[in-house]
Amino acid sequence: MDTNLSQIGYQFEASKYSPGLGYSRLRSVISRRPTQRFFDTKALHIPTFDGRFYHPTQITRHELSPQETFQVCLGPIKLDNHQGESLRAFSFGGVLKATIQGDDLYCDMTSTAPIFRLQEDPNLAGSIVADELMELIAEIEVHLKGQEDELYSRLAKFDPYQLFLASLVSLQKRVDSIPTHMRRGKYLQVVTAIRKAFQIVQTTDGWDGHSPSLEELLSSGGS
To answer: S-S: 170 plus which of 120, 165, 199, 213, CB 3.0-4.6 Å?
Structure first.
């Protein structure tokens, strides 16, 4: 096991984007009992999809087989430690591999889209984009038959990177629709964050800024 990971208890691996925009990988070590790690992880809360149903999955050292793989859904991630503290993140989906190593459970999540660490700075682009996107997802969900399971069955059919681009397009349309007289305060923060994310992805990936919106992807049922 990586020395830093063993000592700290979790590790975010930088994404390919420059300037920085989120992370490409989140690793954590879940311990059976309290240790001397900086962040002594007790449980990982992560949204998963099993091919039919959405699950608000809680992963601990006590419950898993020697090795398991999970399909991670778009949504919030939370690490809890033995001291009652929490660390929060957000992803557009990915793959989580959990492997028992000795007395610990080693969790390794990777994604083709940025993973945002939400508590670094509430004014960072990633935090603002994640907050706005969860509001949009909630609005989309109420219009779907079957709601939560139906929403995630559709989301699960798309690569996280595709969802990421679609989300940026949807959020841009969302802020553009706000009446001029309401464009102040939080609006300015959101616009700046979305614009920054657009610019970073366009520069790094050569993206032309065009993509189906999240609503368009989900309205097709994921087909």
So the answer is: 213
